[in-house]
Specification:
By secondary structure, this protein is α+β, with helices and mostly antiparallel strands. It is 21% helix and 36% strand. The chain is elongated, with a radius of gyration of 13 Å.
Length: 84
Amino acid sequence: MSDKYVWRVVVTDAEGQREPSAAEALPNPYVSDEPAQHVAERVLSLVVPGYAAREPAATAVEVGVWLGRQQGDPIAVAEWHHGP
């Protein structure tokens, strides 16, 4: 059985500002039979290259995944950090 996940990407820029990303090219909600952590890691792997290639590059990217809709704490989180 597939579950409907929703996700949110939060990017930390070189100045330390955290802001949600649009990342509109990916399906949201995301329907999958994978566990939520795999969904978070998959979305992270798809969006990080674009943020890492920017000048100045993002210093962190965080993907939170919820089951059904964004409410409360995410059920899975995947993170990427760059630099010191």
